[in-house]
Amino acid sequence: MAANKCPVMHGGVTTNNTSNVAWWPENLNLDILHQHDTKTNPMDAGFDYQAAVKQLDFAGLKQDLMALMTQSQPWWPADWGHYGGLMIRMTWHAAGTYRIADGRGGASTGNQRFAPLNSWPDNGNLDKARRLLWPLKKKYGNKLSWADLIAYAGTVAYESMGLKTYGFAFGREDIWHPEKDIYWGTEKKWLASSDDSKGRYSGDRELANPLAAVMMGLIYVNPEGVDGKPDPLKTAKDVRETFARMAMNDEETVALTAGGHTVGKAHGNGDAGQLGPEPEAGPIEDQGFGWLNKKSRGIGRDTVTSGIEGAWTTHPTRWDNGYFDMLLNHEWELSKSPAGAWQWQPVAIDEQDKPVDVEDPSLRHQPIMTDADMAMKMDPEYRKISERFHQDPAYFSEVFARAWFKLTHRDLGPKTGYIGPDAPKEDLLWQDPVPAGRTSYDVEAVKSAIASTGLSGSDMIATAWDSARTYRGSDKRGGGNGARIRLAPQKDWQGNEPDRLARVLAKLEPIATQFDISLADVIILAGNLGIELAAKAAGYSISVPFAPGRGDASESMTDVASFEVLEPIHDGFRNWLKQDYVVSPEELLLDRSQLMGLTAHEMTALVGGMRVLGTNYGQSQHGVFTDRVGVLSNDFFVNLTDMDFTWRPTGKNQYDIVERATGTVKWSATRVDLVFGSNSILRAYAEVYAQDDNQEKFIKDFVAAWAKVMQADCAHLAD
Fold it and tell me: Is residue 435 domain-resident?
């Protein structure tokens, strides 16, 4: 070896130049199923954050946060000596990535610490907010997650400036590496215009699902206007859509916009061209800081973040009604910030109504409004709400406090997971409330009653699956608890086969009444019974784990519009697609599996088991590679890997399985079936389950994965 040749592989660890994705970009990437591998978690194996946070000194933490707000640091001085505006923006931008379409984003994981979020243009200088919080994270240690601290800091900031908040709940557990597989858009550059954002918009500016922001790198809308062109009415349309993607109505939208801009300021007093790279692109000596100005002062009054410059109200460190006073009592005209960003300023304003300089109270500056702020005045519906809030400050404060709580808690899950003395007791419709069910009853007697109904195993299993499959680990919505499958809108969803569902429920509802237990429990028990009988038919006696205590939600507890987004449009486990999509069926399967919290081998076991159990949508025979349907066998894997067969495409997403020797068509399949033989990783799992010595292992793995899905929304029942 040459003396000057480094013996370490270059590029292979830190770049994708030699990754499988780079070599074979069309290959199915399973990384999304393992994005929170336990190997990345530095905590001890037995660490339980939900237990640890209950030991937190809640009063001490709040006191420390209150003190931090006014302890200005020279390396990043606080505007007007108060960090409230910065902390609120940090919390807002952590929570504001939440979207209802798939429940991803939000503040519940602390993901703002990692790329891409830590380096989004819209999150400029929030790295400074997190570093300001580090002494408190260091002090309270394992009892306080970054996720909880990031979410809590903004709430305390509001309290420190005079708002009576609605409450706060702890219980968010940190992740330990980037959620790089979340789909934020197809753009290859930050802040791409609509013309450059292929796939983000279609038709009359229709934003594609599951996206909620108008541009890659923004939390919501472009503050300068659509594609950076000021037009408040066009911006109003973007605002309404992007806030609706968080399940916020018009009143909540106006309250959040106004409340967010009642305090703090925007920063654009300088040349954005002097800023260094974002955190992930910074040199090692910057130690994770980004957007550093090493050419001029770049802090205090000379800070550049969004490029917009100025405060919205006369008193930006005080919770008051100043936002509406300023917005509605002045005429506004377009201007540009020192950094060159479009913004609005009052045509005329008294000197005493101008906010003072962040460092020198003897100086006053023009207040500003963004294009989104002007939408609150110029859009007819937003204007009505703004005037109502202007006339009734107490009502505005109440609506904002509740909307802020919803913003910061929407992805935390049901109220049963709330921790801490300030967690509100009220049941809120958006929390998907479910009453507690009975936990003490004769489970075996219930199963005997179910067995006497004459329902087929496939009917029992499919109904339990359809009830539970809506669960999303992203925001802990959906699932079998509540038995909402019997209510609108779920009872009418195409994927739930309404006629079959009604027939099955008609058999199960009397059992719930007879034993005075929830239908939710009966549905899951029926599915478990179907699995146990299918395993018995295969020669194995097993008992599927079950935790009683689910409740039945009522129509009044169900927000129909909010639940519409949970409707399945595909289910690879039941071999069903509502229609053809641009995304392949196997990619849709991965997405759903990840939301359900499944690993790749759990997904594999479930698909193989569901096929032989005869649970396909509409009794389709695709992928049913067995001559003994209803028996929990490993036949799916045995026949998929058998080289006596060959595979022949017969149409879009349809294939025949043909005997090599005779040319006889034996079975049919879809892409979701065949991917378990074509993808090298999935095939490795399929081969494990196809082995002669692994029939029992397959059954055990299937049952464990099944129970995981059935009980994913019932963690509170184990307490």
Answer: no
Q: What CATH number should be reported for the domain holding residue 525?
A: 1.10.520.10
In a domain, 417, yes or no: no
Segment 421-448 shows an average pLDDT of 97
Q: Does residue 291 lie within any of the structural domains?
A: yes
Mark whether 93 is an active-site residue: yes
- Tell me, yes or no, whether 384 lies in a domain: yes
Q: What is the CA radius of gyration of the chain?
A: 28
pLDDT at 16 over 50: no
Which one of the listed residues 10, 36, 82, 93 is annotated catalytic?
A: 93
List alpha helices for 161-249, DSSP H: 232-244
The one-character DSSP state at 389 is H
Dump pLDDT digits (tens) for 262-316: 999 999 999 999 999 999 999 999 999 999 999 999 999 999 999 999 999 999 9
| Average pLDDT rounded to a whole number, residues 618-641 | 98
- Residues 260 and 376 reside in one and the same domain: yes
What stretches of 245-277 show up as alpha helix (H) in DSSP? 250-261
Q: Which of 158, 189, 191 is nearest to 307 (CA)?
A: 191
Nearest to 591 by CA among 38, 102, 265: 102
Over pLDDT 70: what percentage of the chain?
97
Least confident of 181-195, 454-468, 563-577, 672-686: 181-195
- With CA atoms as reference, report the closest residue to 609 among 598, 627, 623: 623
Within its chain, how far is the Cα of 171 from the centroid?
Answer: 16
249 contacts: CB under 8 Å, gap ≥ 6:
none
Provide φ and ψ at 23, rounded to 5°: -75, -40
353 vs 14, 318, 319, 321, 718, CA distance in Å?
Answer: 53, 14, 16, 13, 57
Question: Side chain identity at 653, as an amino acid letter?
Answer: N
- pLDDT over 80 at 703, yes or no: yes
Q: Could you tell me the two tokens for 144?
A: 């306080």
